[in-house]
Amino acid sequence: MSPKKKSAPAKKPATKKKVADKKEALSPAVAKQEKKTQKSYQNVRGMKDIVPSQGGQWLRMFDAARSIAESYCYGYVETPIVEQAQLFVKSLGRGTDVVEKEMYVFEDNEGTKIALRPEFTAGIARSYISHGMLSLPQPVKVWTVGPLFRHDRPQSGRYRQFHQFNCEVIGERNPVSDAELISMAYNFLRDLGLQAEIHINSIGTFEDRQNYIVELVGYLRSKRSYLCENCKKRISKNPLRVLDCKELGCQEALEDAPQIIEWLSAASKDFFMSVLEYLDELRIPYVLTPTLVRGLDYYTDTVFELFVDGGKEQSQSALGGGGRYDGLLEEIGAREATPASGFAIGLERVMLALNKKEKEEQEGSDVAGSRHPAGIERQFFFAQLGEQARRRTLALIESLRKSGIQLGSSLAKGSLKAQLELADKMKSTHSIILGQKEVQDGTVIIRDMDSGIQEIIDQKKIEHHLRKLMK
Ligand code: AMP
User: Residue 388 belongs to a domain with what CATH number?
Assistant: First the structure.
């Protein structure tokens, strides 16, 4: 035995004793006080929980995303939450806010620079190349939903972890793809009950843009003193970004700025006109917005954003946005030209818009007060009275659940009043009541929650009866 091993057992009791000593030293009152003052853990700044009262709505957005994506024949994909940081630097651009200020970057154990994904497009484009999707029938249409990370200053509608519903069409350059994507984003919001306003512009090809940028920089220099501090820096770093600055001074200074649309090549102009014509065909309203440029380097031609409530004055009020990115895949390693376009909608902002709408609709009514705390609704509620009834109920609910009928219940509660109150909160139309007498008779009572009218039926016929009542 090595001397090291010998000494080990001697140490253990000493440590235990120390702990015991400390415990003994603290009187119960002091220990209680110490526990009280212990700091509780907070969520990391800018990262939010979804609590049960929001869970139903959150899942409804996922369902709506899946349903619309499948109806447009998109396949579901998932990419890792982390990618090599360089992927984002290369695709989004070095001078962009996301890469320069907002990306969470760290070195992993092997010294590789890793980033938490700040957006989906670059990862999905990387995945398309990695998996040789070019050999699949084109275009490849994919959708995903999940968390993204940007180290921005948190405020309402702007978080450090947020979620997007994202769709991409890779391997096709046709204005009809852009129109279809826009209609899909618009219809997703409409399905959730939100009327979106689409702002649209074209920023042309990289070449169109270079000529325009020279002109724009000249103009911005002449207005330098009117611009905010951020925009003064942007003149040399990312002049296009000045165009969608929300500061009043900057907006005024931009009134006579050259418009990118006038610098588009004939091909880009035609392309843009076709996108608009398809939108007209689909009867999707849009607002031509010459200052809309989007923040990232990879965009070409069509760019768009979606708003509700006409809330375009605040920078964080867009619910989503997207556009064409014909050069990105080649930039990150595709062997041939692979045009593409896509959009992303922020789910936290959709949720804020839905809450606002719901609040406006409920103003004056007391619906919220009588709602189940987790927003759970069930058409049927099973209530029981007494231990024997509870046992029988457990088995009956299980068998109904297996046959596809979902019921609310609160088996731990003894009082019928408390159970029926819960049924009310769950908006149940009918309660099934099982007491001692019904256990003996092999029956249950079905109570209409609105009229209070009760019916006695055989336990064997519950399923049949409930199916007749089902909405
Ligand atoms: P972007 O990728 O910046 O074009 O953003 C697309 C959409 O994602 C925005 O319109 C927002 O709805 C949402 N989004 C972007 N950044 C954030 C953030 N920091 N917090 C919450 N939502 C965000």
Answer: 3.40.50.800
Other CB atoms within a 10 A radius of the CB of residue 28 amount to: 7
> How far is Cα 386 from Cα 393, in angstroms, rounded to an integer?
10
221 is in an annotated binding site: no
Instruction: Tell whether 398 is in a known binding site.
Output: no
Determine if ligand 1 sits within 6 Å of the CB of residue 162.
yes
Residue 288, Cβ neighbours under 10 Å: how many? Answer: 12
| CA dist., res. 171 & res. 139, Å (int) | 5
Q: Domain of 108: which CATH number?
A: 3.30.930.10
pTM, whole model, 2 decimals?
A: 0.84
What six digits make up the tokens of 306?
């979606």
Same domain, 443 and 337: no
Q: The tokens of 442 are what?
A: 């092999």
Q: Are residues 104 and 163 in the same domain?
A: yes
The closest of 90, 277, 292 to 179, measured between CA atoms, is 277
Q: pLDDT for 6-30, tens place per residue?
A: 344 444 444 444 444 544 456 677 6
Ligand 1 center from residue 26 Cα (angstroms): 51
Query: Which pLDDT score is estimated for 15?
Result: 47
For the chain, how many structural domains are there in total?
2
Check: CB of residue 263 under 8 Å from CB of residue 208.
Answer: yes
Q: Give SS3 for 368.
A: helix
120 is in an annotated binding site: yes
Q: Tell me: the pLDDT tens digits for 212-223? A: 999 999 999 999
| Same domain flag for 318 and 462 | no
Q: Give the β-pairing of 75-76 and 140-149.
A: parallel
- Domain membership of residue 332 as a residue range: 52-205+265-357
452 and 322 in a common domain: no
Query: In terms of domains, do 167 and 275 share one?
Result: yes
